[in-house]
TrEMBL record:
The keyword Cytoplasm does not apply. Keywords: Acyltransferase, Transferase. It comes from Posidoniimonas polymericola. This is 3-oxoacyl-[acyl-carrier-protein] synthase 3. Pfam families: ACP_syn_III, ACP_syn_III_C. PANTHER family: 3-OXOACYL-[ACYL-CARRIER-PROTEIN] SYNTHASE 3 (PTHR34069), ACYL-COA:ACYL-COA ALKYLTRANSFERASE (PTHR34069:SF3). Coiled coil: none annotated. CDD domains: KAS_III. Residues 239-325 form the Beta-ketoacyl-[acyl-carrier-protein] synthase III C-terminal domain. Residues 114-186 form the Beta-ketoacyl-[acyl-carrier-protein] synthase III N-terminal domain. GO terms for biological process: fatty acid biosynthetic process; secondary metabolite biosynthetic process.
Amino acid sequence: MATMKINGVRVAGIASAVPANTLTADDLSRRFGDEESAKIRASVGVEERRVAEDGVCASDLCFEAAERLLADLSWDRGDVQGLIFVTQTPDYFAPSTSCVLQHRLGLAPSCAAFDVNMGCSGYVYGLAVAMQLAGSIDGRVLLLVGDTITKMVSPDDRSTAPLFGDAGSATAIEPDADAPPATIVLGTNGAGAEHLITRRGGFREPADQQHPPRLKMDGAEVFQFALGEVPRAYRATIQEHGWTTDDVESVVMHQSNLFMLQHFRKRLKLPEEKLVIGLQKYGNASCASIPLAIADAWGAPGATLSRRLALVGFGVGWSWGGAAVSLHDAVLPAVVSVDSPPAAMPEAA
């Protein structure tokens, strides 16, 4: 796996935002019946999901998370020199949604902004890019990671509809000569691309009214992939960082489903209290699931977090990554609930 050591950069804060619109077990029962709903909930572990309404995009959720984080950090927006938006559900094919967000957030024209198309490993990949960028330019960077993945899910698909939710996040990264080092490992195997895919909507297979973009997932293949790569990524990450599991205070994995997370905990012999699980209230939030789980576990008004974390993201691609990161007084607001559609793209100044 590709391995990088990062020095002189810290995570200054993490914020997450979700739609106020909530679907519950009752909604699931109405669609699939009580018996089937109970079986699904027992397997995937999701009791509630946050689902974006029409007109609400991943960028809107990330915008709200960024607004909260910038306010809590008291950062001067003119000091933000980089903005990275990780998503599979952008506002437009062009321009890059990061450009729209740079304008909405009131960041300076000197800010570099670009999109990264990644799924459930996207937060770890985003951290790798954002931390390296912050170190290279010696400046502050905003990493925005989010998806409205439910817009690509058929409400009648038993493998995806009960599982996925929508969320956005913002992570603030800045140079700090005294920051503890971070280690990130990354891997890819495109041979698994067909097993978790949204075929329609690109230029290879354009969407139309009869064939809208729909996420298709082969759950058995996903599990087989994760069974091999997730434990390997976790072990490689902490080993490269010089940690053992005893050194790790909390493990935050992509919140895939409850069955898989419990399997990984047993396979890696993690104490139950060490593995963070937050998908019960939000569902599988795609690339935003790791920062959302962190915010759900520790976020509160005025809260800060100092903790040694091992992060593991994995999924569509196949793609995976692990990160060993030590937070020190990182600002961690409570999860933001977004209850109204935003305006369209701001008019040019």
